[in-house]
Amino acid sequence: MEPSGLHSAAKALEDAFFARENARLLEQLRANAQKEERRQALRAVVQVQDEQLIDHLLELGLGPETVLAVTLVPLAMVAWADGAIQAKEREAILRAAAEKGIVPGSIAQQVLDSWLSQAPSAKLVDAWKLYTQTIWPSLTPHEREEIREVGLERARGVAEAAGGFLGLGGVTAKERAVLDELAKVLTA
Asked: How many CB atoms are closer than 10 A to CB 33?
Protein backbone atom coordinates (compact mmCIF):
# COMPACT_ATOMS: atom_id res chain seq x y z
CA MET A 1 0.00 0.00 0.00
CA GLU A 2 1.22 3.47 -0.85
CA PRO A 3 2.09 5.87 1.97
CA SER A 4 -0.78 8.16 0.99
CA GLY A 5 -3.20 5.19 0.99
CA LEU A 6 -1.86 4.07 4.34
CA HIS A 7 -2.26 7.59 5.62
CA SER A 8 -5.88 7.72 4.38
CA ALA A 9 -6.67 4.35 5.99
CA ALA A 10 -5.09 5.48 9.26
CA LYS A 11 -7.08 8.71 9.15
CA ALA A 12 -10.32 6.79 8.52
CA LEU A 13 -9.50 4.48 11.46
CA GLU A 14 -8.80 7.45 13.75
CA ASP A 15 -11.98 9.24 12.66
CA ALA A 16 -14.08 6.12 13.27
CA PHE A 17 -12.47 5.54 16.69
CA PHE A 18 -12.89 9.12 17.85
CA ALA A 19 -16.42 9.35 16.47
CA ARG A 20 -17.35 6.26 18.49
CA GLU A 21 -15.51 7.56 21.58
CA ASN A 22 -17.12 10.99 21.22
CA ALA A 23 -20.55 9.39 20.90
CA ARG A 24 -19.88 7.37 24.08
CA LEU A 25 -18.72 10.47 25.94
CA LEU A 26 -21.70 12.47 24.69
CA GLU A 27 -24.08 9.73 25.85
CA GLN A 28 -22.35 9.67 29.24
CA LEU A 29 -22.70 13.45 29.48
CA ARG A 30 -26.42 13.23 28.66
CA ALA A 31 -26.94 10.46 31.24
CA ASN A 32 -25.20 12.53 33.91
CA ALA A 33 -27.31 15.56 33.04
CA GLN A 34 -30.50 13.49 33.19
CA LYS A 35 -29.47 12.02 36.56
CA GLU A 36 -28.81 15.50 37.93
CA GLU A 37 -32.22 16.68 36.67
CA ARG A 38 -33.90 13.75 38.46
CA ARG A 39 -31.87 14.50 41.60
CA GLN A 40 -33.00 18.14 41.53
CA ALA A 41 -36.63 17.17 40.91
CA LEU A 42 -36.51 14.62 43.73
CA ARG A 43 -34.85 17.15 46.03
CA ALA A 44 -37.70 19.58 45.30
CA VAL A 45 -40.30 16.93 46.14
CA VAL A 46 -38.68 15.47 49.25
CA GLN A 47 -37.49 18.85 50.54
CA VAL A 48 -34.82 17.56 52.87
CA GLN A 49 -31.22 18.70 53.10
CA ASP A 50 -29.85 15.15 53.26
CA GLU A 51 -28.14 14.52 49.91
CA GLN A 52 -27.44 10.91 50.88
CA LEU A 53 -31.18 10.33 51.26
CA ILE A 54 -31.79 11.81 47.80
CA ASP A 55 -29.08 9.60 46.28
CA HIS A 56 -30.40 6.55 48.11
CA LEU A 57 -33.95 7.11 46.88
CA LEU A 58 -32.62 7.43 43.32
CA GLU A 59 -30.60 4.22 43.73
CA LEU A 60 -33.79 2.47 44.83
CA GLY A 61 -35.39 3.59 41.58
CA LEU A 62 -37.71 6.11 43.20
CA GLY A 63 -38.36 9.08 41.01
CA PRO A 64 -40.01 12.36 41.90
CA GLU A 65 -43.35 11.12 40.56
CA THR A 66 -43.45 8.15 42.95
CA VAL A 67 -42.26 10.15 45.93
CA LEU A 68 -44.83 12.83 45.13
CA ALA A 69 -47.63 10.27 45.24
CA VAL A 70 -46.24 8.79 48.46
CA THR A 71 -46.22 12.23 50.09
CA LEU A 72 -49.58 13.51 48.83
CA VAL A 73 -51.78 10.46 49.47
CA PRO A 74 -51.56 10.93 53.28
CA LEU A 75 -52.63 14.57 52.92
CA ALA A 76 -55.71 13.52 50.98
CA MET A 77 -56.43 10.77 53.52
CA VAL A 78 -56.40 13.28 56.39
CA ALA A 79 -58.44 15.84 54.47
CA TRP A 80 -61.16 13.29 53.71
CA ALA A 81 -61.15 11.75 57.21
CA ASP A 82 -64.38 13.56 58.11
CA GLY A 83 -66.02 12.65 54.81
CA ALA A 84 -65.57 16.07 53.19
CA ILE A 85 -62.80 18.53 52.51
CA GLN A 86 -63.17 21.94 54.09
CA ALA A 87 -61.89 25.05 52.33
CA LYS A 88 -58.99 25.49 54.76
CA GLU A 89 -57.96 21.85 54.34
CA ARG A 90 -58.01 22.27 50.58
CA GLU A 91 -55.86 25.39 50.89
CA ALA A 92 -53.40 23.54 53.16
CA ILE A 93 -53.09 20.69 50.68
CA LEU A 94 -52.63 23.03 47.73
CA ARG A 95 -50.03 25.00 49.70
CA ALA A 96 -48.16 21.76 50.52
CA ALA A 97 -48.35 20.75 46.86
CA ALA A 98 -47.02 24.13 45.70
CA GLU A 99 -44.15 23.76 48.19
CA LYS A 100 -43.39 20.43 46.51
CA GLY A 101 -43.25 22.11 43.13
CA ILE A 102 -46.59 21.02 41.71
CA VAL A 103 -47.27 23.44 38.92
CA PRO A 104 -50.85 24.44 38.08
CA GLY A 105 -51.98 22.57 34.98
CA SER A 106 -49.43 19.77 35.44
CA ILE A 107 -50.48 16.13 35.55
CA ALA A 108 -49.59 16.05 39.25
CA GLN A 109 -51.93 19.01 39.82
CA GLN A 110 -54.70 17.27 37.89
CA VAL A 111 -54.29 14.11 39.99
CA LEU A 112 -54.34 16.18 43.15
CA ASP A 113 -57.45 18.03 41.99
CA SER A 114 -59.19 14.70 41.46
CA TRP A 115 -58.25 13.67 45.02
CA LEU A 116 -59.66 16.95 46.30
CA SER A 117 -62.90 16.39 44.39
CA GLN A 118 -63.36 12.77 45.40
CA ALA A 119 -61.93 10.86 48.35
CA PRO A 120 -58.98 8.60 47.57
CA SER A 121 -60.20 5.07 46.96
CA ALA A 122 -59.46 2.26 49.39
CA LYS A 123 -57.40 0.72 46.59
CA LEU A 124 -55.19 3.83 46.42
CA VAL A 125 -54.78 3.94 50.20
CA ASP A 126 -53.92 0.22 50.27
CA ALA A 127 -51.41 0.71 47.43
CA TRP A 128 -49.83 3.59 49.37
CA LYS A 129 -49.55 1.46 52.52
CA LEU A 130 -48.11 -1.51 50.62
CA TYR A 131 -45.60 0.61 48.75
CA THR A 132 -44.51 2.44 51.89
CA GLN A 133 -44.13 -0.81 53.84
CA THR A 134 -42.21 -2.35 50.93
CA ILE A 135 -39.72 0.51 50.58
CA TRP A 136 -39.35 1.17 54.33
CA PRO A 137 -36.82 -1.63 55.08
CA SER A 138 -34.59 -0.34 52.26
CA LEU A 139 -34.14 2.98 54.05
CA THR A 140 -31.75 3.70 56.90
CA PRO A 141 -33.24 4.54 60.31
CA HIS A 142 -32.23 8.18 59.77
CA GLU A 143 -33.93 8.28 56.35
CA ARG A 144 -37.11 6.70 57.74
CA GLU A 145 -37.22 9.22 60.59
CA GLU A 146 -36.72 12.16 58.24
CA ILE A 147 -39.49 11.01 55.87
CA ARG A 148 -41.77 10.17 58.80
CA GLU A 149 -41.32 13.58 60.45
CA VAL A 150 -41.90 15.56 57.24
CA GLY A 151 -44.89 13.43 56.21
CA LEU A 152 -46.62 13.54 59.58
CA GLU A 153 -45.95 17.26 59.99
CA ARG A 154 -47.64 18.02 56.66
CA ALA A 155 -50.55 15.68 57.39
CA ARG A 156 -51.00 17.28 60.82
CA GLY A 157 -50.98 20.70 59.11
CA VAL A 158 -53.89 19.62 56.91
CA ALA A 159 -55.80 18.29 59.94
CA GLU A 160 -55.23 21.48 61.90
CA ALA A 161 -56.07 23.75 58.94
CA ALA A 162 -59.82 23.31 59.28
CA GLY A 163 -59.75 23.95 63.02
CA GLY A 164 -61.81 20.92 64.04
CA PHE A 165 -65.58 20.89 64.37
CA LEU A 166 -67.04 24.25 63.28
CA GLY A 167 -63.57 25.78 63.42
CA LEU A 168 -63.21 25.01 67.13
CA GLY A 169 -60.71 22.75 68.72
CA GLY A 170 -58.13 21.60 66.22
CA VAL A 171 -57.95 18.00 65.07
CA THR A 172 -61.11 15.89 65.02
CA ALA A 173 -61.24 12.31 66.32
CA LYS A 174 -61.49 10.96 62.76
CA GLU A 175 -58.50 13.02 61.63
CA ARG A 176 -56.58 11.86 64.73
CA ALA A 177 -57.39 8.24 63.79
CA VAL A 178 -56.00 8.78 60.28
CA LEU A 179 -52.90 10.50 61.68
CA ASP A 180 -52.38 7.55 64.03
CA GLU A 181 -52.80 5.15 61.10
CA LEU A 182 -50.23 7.13 59.07
CA ALA A 183 -47.80 7.13 62.00
CA LYS A 184 -48.21 3.37 62.34
CA VAL A 185 -47.47 2.78 58.64
CA LEU A 186 -44.50 5.15 58.74
CA THR A 187 -43.07 3.40 61.79
CA ALA A 188 -43.38 -0.20 60.64
From this structure: 10
